[in-house]
Structure formats: structure tokens, C-alpha cells
Amino acid sequence: MKIALPIVNGKLSLHFGHCQSFALVEADKNSREIKETEYTQPPPHEPGVLPKWLHDLGAELIIAGGMGQRAQKLFNDNNIEVIVGAESDTPENVVKEYLNNTLTTGSNLCDH
């Protein structure tokens, strides 16, 4: 599966819309292994652009610190599952926690 994470300064961005890049992590959910991590620059942040762009890149899941309700709906409309409330850490650590069912999430850090 391919997991997308918004990144700022090498770690998970706590606010989805303020990320500098995206980490696209290819992972095997059965073996719980990370196969590859690729960093890519997103297109300009405009409503509706990122969900389609990430869908076209093959993302099936996005993990973020915070994301507005409208953005979450747009991701769901593009068949991308959304997990919010994750803490800032490296993409590999966040994905390892997800794969091992130890990812702790708190409140959605975005309220719009």
C-alpha cells in the first residue's frame, strides 16, 4: 500500500495545508515492512487539488496531524483513507507505528 504524509522540516506536518513536501511511503501491510520512501513537491495548495493529485500517485491512506473536514471529505471522495491527530515524527516512524497498530492519535489539530 502507498501511504502519503505531509512533511515540514523532515517530520509529519501538524497542519496538512502548511506542508513543504509529501512523503509517499510504499509499505507491505502483511509483513509490516517499509519498501520505499519517496519525497515529492505538491502542486500549489488549492481546495480539491491535493486529493486528486495524491490519488493519481497511488496513495491509499494519508496520515496527518490535522486536516479540515472538507479536505477529509475530498480525500474520502478520492478513495483515500484519512487518519488525523498523529504526532510529529519522521515519516518512517509514523508508518512503522501504523503498520504495527501502535500509532496513537489525538485531536484533529485543524479546526476548519
Order of SSEs: EEEEHEHEH
Distinct helical segment count: 3
Which structural class should the secondary elements be placed in?
alpha/beta
The helix content, as a percent range, equals: 10-25%
Oligomer: single chain
Low-pLDDT regions:
none
**Number of E-state strands:** 6
Proportion in β-strands: 25-35%
Q: Major beta sheet, specifics?
A: 6 strands, mixed
CATH superfamily assignment?
Answer: Dinitrogenase iron-molybdenum cofactor biosynthesis domain
CATH class: Alpha Beta
Instruction: Tell me the count of domains.
Output: 1
Mean pLDDT over all positions: 91
CATH topology: Nucleotidyltransferase, domain 5
Plain-language structure description:
InterPro entries: Di-Nase_FeMo-co_biosynth, DiNase_FeMo-co_biosyn_sf, MTH1175_dom. This is Dinitrogenase iron-molybdenum cofactor. With 112 residues, this protein is an alpha/beta fold. It has a single domain, classed as Nucleotidyltransferase, domain 5 (2-Layer Sandwich), CATH 3.30.420.130. The protein is 23% helix and 29% strand. It is built from 3 helices and 6 strands. Strands 1, 2, 3, 4, 5 and 6 form a 6-stranded mixed β-sheet that branches. Helix 1 packs parallel to helix 2. The longest helix has 9 residues. The protein is globular. The termini are far apart.
